[in-house]
Structures are given as C-alpha cells and as structure tokens.
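Extended Data, panel c. Modelled sequence:
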Amino acid sequence: MPEAWYEQYASRFSSAPIVAVDTIRHIDTWTPYPRVKKDLPLYRYRFDDPEGTYLYLSSQTGEAVQLCTRSERIGASCGTIPHMFYYWWLRQNRTVWLWVISIFASLAVIAAFTGLYLGIRLYVRMWRRTKRLRSPYKRQKTLHWHLVGGVIFGLSLTLFALSGVMSLYDLPSWIVPQHETQTKRKEVQQEEAPQLGRSDMYDYRLLLDLGGVQQITWRSYGGHPYYEVQRHGQLESWDALGEAPQLLHLTEQDIKAKLTPVLGTSDMQIELMDHYDNYYVSLNDKYELPIYRISAQDKESSRLYISPTTGETRYYSLNGRVKKWLYPFCHNLRIGFFAEHPTLRIICMLVLVLGGLVVSVSGVVLGFRYLRRVIRRAKSRRSK
C-alpha cells in the first residue's frame, strides 16, 4: 500500500500532526509480543499531541498493532515490564522468556516457603524456652524485622510467587482431571456458518439507516441469525429476525441449541446473572452484565458465561476453575467479594505489598551483609 494511505489511516487515530515516522524492523519495548513478528516491519507514527501518542501499523496488513501514550509507557516501564519481564530482547523468544520467568518464580516460591518454615520453627523454639511468642533477634533490627515480616507475610509471598508460575501453565491433570477441555473451549467459541436462503430475515440494508455503518457481517448463534455491525468504530450485534432492526438478545433456547451438541448433554442450568461471581469478575466494571451463567453436567463440569448481546463466551472446566483460585485470586485478589468492595481490596493489596517489600528489602540487606562477611573471611585467610 502507498505511503499516503498509511498516513491517511494513521490520521484517524489522532487529530494532532504527525512529527515522525519510524520503520521498526524488530519488536520493541511497546510491541513485545512474538505474534507481532508477522507484521514486521512496523511503521511507528509519532504525533505532536500533549499525550505523546505512538501508533504502530503493520506493513503487511495496514492494521493498527499498538496505540500508546506517554503516560501509558511510563506506567508500563514502572509496572508491567519489570513485573512480567516484558523486555523486547527477551520476549522475542517465548520459550526462553517462559523459562526465565519460571526459574525466577520457582526460586521465589522456594525462598518464601523455606523462610516461612524456618521463621515458624524459630518462634516455636522460643515458645518452648520462654513460653512467650517473641523474636530471638530483638537487638539485630534488620534480622528481627525480616523474621517478623517473613512469618506474617511468608504465606502470601509464597502464594504470590506460585500463582505467578501458574499464570503461565495449565493446572496439571493429576491434580484436577480434564478430558476434552481444549476441544470444548474451541467449539463453544467457534463461529457458526450462517444458514443460507432464510426467508425470515429482514434486508441488511435497513441497518444503513442507523448511520455511521462501516461494515456488516452476517453471523449465527445456535441457529439464530444476526448481523455484526461495525459502527462509529464500535461493534454491535443486531438481531436478523423480525421486521425491523433491533439489538440482539439471545434466549435460553438459543444457548441450549448451541451448547447441547458441543457439551454432549442437555442437562444444564442456565441463569441470567446480574452480578459478578468468583469466576466472572472485573475489578473495574468492564465486563458485561447481565450475563448468562451455564453449569453443565458433563465430564468437565463445564461452566460457561455467555453474553446475551454478542454471544461472546468464556469457558471454564473444573480444572480451570481451580486454577482461578491460584491465579488470579492469589495474585491480585480478583474475586467477586473484592469486586463489590474495591476499597477493602486496595487496602489488603497495599498491606500485602508493603509487607512483602519489607521482607524482600531486609532479605537483600541481610544477603549483602552475609556476602560481605564471607569475602572478609576469605581475605583474612589469604593474608595469613
């Protein structure tokens, strides 16, 4: 595509003038995903706006790959990138990145758990000697606070590190069996081929009267036809049945028609849920409500959450639901209770994070002091 086309397309994302265009021949800090490699080289457009916007366009398809502002880049540099090791030179090879994350997280699990065990053991010894729960390191402040913090926050640190590992891998089947999880997840999310020659559908051209229509796609869910309309940059689903356009609202019959052949059973409980639960939960109220919650009596004990307005589906087997308790609950307290009490969640997260910081910093200080003593002893032996 000609350069003018890219520039015209990029101008849709910001009204500010373009000050520079760079050709990016490898994934960088703001596009650190291996899947982006198929779009290389990328064209990075920098806008002269107060937000410092960067736009990345694929040279292969012309599609926008990434849009980020200065504040988002600063936030990522301080948070997501160091937390997840999203360094472009490491993320180029996903296998290596997974190994690095897994090794560091596993070491953190071992360190936190052994520290918790040794800390509890010290307190038990002091109790047996003095009949009082007290630290044996009252005069050694750094060691004292490391011990106290480790005993109090050791379990949360262990679970935090363990959940970090579990975010990258499936829960092993020997813990919670799973049979056809991947196949069912794929099939319930798979798009259906629309039925041709239906006489009960109105003419799609009636949707043009809505205004701002950019694209119309004919789709089907459980045999129920609908139109997916891209309008004003947003996707909307419009029921294709009836005499006039109306927004899609799937019924329980539509849900059953879709799921019965996939799950292999019609024994399922369907309810329209108007609140978050422990598996369908958003901490910033971005998930759609109400939502259909389906509990099926199949081998996987399948649980599904299906949007009545789009058919978008989230699928969890029993194995997947158990993993939800390891991650993300143990990692960021993401459950229904804290979604309803966000202030309490923030307080709990701050306490756990600050406690973990005390344990980590004091541990690093003690480690450096130990290494310094070892080096001094080695030097003194050589001098003799």
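The mean pLDDT is 89. This feature is highlighted in the accompanying rendering.
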